[in-house]
């Protein structure tokens, strides 16, 4: 339990223990010494065993390092760690050796490919430059070196834009770096056909170029290959060809003929400017189109048929082709010929066409004129003899009337004879109208007054089913016309219109003053100047082109046996001999529109025609000596009887020679002579008499028309010509007035006073036209441009307002706005006018319409317009309206 119970004392001797300990220590020391010796011996052995393999390993490693020879191997004598290490080292050397062999083979193959690539690049005829992704040059072939002027050694690793500077040949502006374009697009790009390369020495070459990306196996862009070649020669050839084409186009454009080329499929490949003008279509809208895209089916088929003949036969073809254009039917003389390729196959058809419309019209006018002249010569010859017979019948019938005044029954018979002779006289006048070149009884005539006077008669002629309208101009100019011929023309036109109108209809006579400039006059075959325009419009059945071409031919009639065919031919003859022109506009189902142009009479007559109007105060008797000359004995006797009954002393002769013989013996106051006589006609006799007997008065008579006497230069004789058959009273008045006239009357030229131009000039005015019809825009623009105006066109209200707003902020403010009433879009003409008026209260706005009776036209101010303009495209009317609206 831990309780101390005593002490034990042990005593022993240490000597023996120390001895044993000392022995033990010596033993230990011996053993340690032996162990050290053994260890040393073992260390020496181990050192020999370990260091040798390591030394061998170091030797092999050094050999490999120095010689790069991987063939040596370490010995594998033991299975210890050194043996394992040597085995691993030998395996490593084997792998390295195989890799070295593979790398050597790859390097050799790569070298071969490199050599092949160099050979290939150097063998390519095109220039090649290769760059990396940054645009630095990595390869060039000799052609590239030659074109750029850079050697590969100098160009290596330089930016492409330094080695390859390129410009646009036309603009001389730098072109974007192809490498950048390829990098951006990721695909092949091509330079334009007009690229210029600037070589290192400054030489310029035209090149064709393409650049493509170089991609890795994972589709990444590694660089760019640029391939180009020298196309300078081709460029110059192409430029020369382009210049030749431009020159050819210019030559063709300035040709007066219409020229075009179509391929064998009918598509247009070339046209000249005349073709543009012909169709009023832009060239770009025609090229690539066919005839059927441009013309109506029937016209296109006809034209294409001629082309097909040329293509199938390979031969040229001449033909006349008719085309309906905006201003009517045109006739073209065309020559078509094939174009052959290198294989001698037809690849296109060229057509050269000349507009012969005017020539055909002139030929038609000449043909008509020749026909009428031939007819006139025939009827003139008959009428002359017929007039002589009528003169005899008529004259003696008048004498019978005077002698039989006491016997009413016989006097009645004589009156019937005289009336029949008068009818015969009117008939011969109509026949003689074909040969007259001037109106024999022409005088100052107011066509307005004539129409007003004839209105009642015309209304009766037209009957109640046809409404007669007269639209007469104020202050119409006078014309120098035969009032009788004018009346006949008006009646003929009215009768024809009544026959053309089925059922109810309208006939409108309209007069205007017209000033024709050189261009307008030439189109009408007139000379420039002032004209009175008379238009006659009916709502009848209209006419086709064939009928229009023949309506003025003598004896042509659309009424069959009911018509004589002389009505319109007489009208035509009257207009022509009056120095005027007549135009016809008509289409089947749309009525007919005849427009007459008569020259304004702005001169007074140089002579005073003998008055023939009867006056009871005039004394027709006389005692003078008269000489009657006529180869028709009956007419000589008739004239002698008429004149002698009035107290005159009458001598007679049957020809000019006999008359001159009488003058040598007798004192004669007046000679009354026929014109047409054998050996010496009346004019020749008059010339001899005026030369040798200047105091003798001369009165000529003829049964022929004025054309026979056109060579007569004495105006007095010509104007005072008495036409057979004549009344006794007419003969007596002519003779008395001529005897009483002052023979020393002075002849002087009287010139018409030119009107002073008080109209406000329109030159430089800016005019906005709003109309959805292109034809209206063009016609208005042409007329306004000829007046010196500047034109802006709009197709609808929004466009018109925009144009006007823009003008307010520019230096060219719009002076006048011409608006159509009805236009497509959200705004009407009235609304557009109101909007423009809100922008400028002082602007002048004109409403225009083809319906002159529209309320906007008749009450234009009520609708916000300043005035109204009818769509008749009359330049003088347009000018008048514009000048009126511009007045303050």
UniProtKB/TrEMBL annotation:
Recorded catalytic reaction(s): these are: ATP + protein L-histidine = ADP + protein N-phospho-L-histidine
What is the designated name of this protein? histidine kinase
Keyword Kinase applies:
yes
EC number assigned by the record: 2.7.13.3
- Which residues belong to any copy of the Histidine kinase domain? 381-602
CDD domains for this protein = HAMP (cd06225), HisKA (cd00082), PAS (cd00130), REC (cd00156), REC_hyHK_CKI1_RcsC-like (cd17546)
Q: Main EC class of this protein?
A: transferase
Q: Which organism is it from?
A: hydrothermal vent metagenome
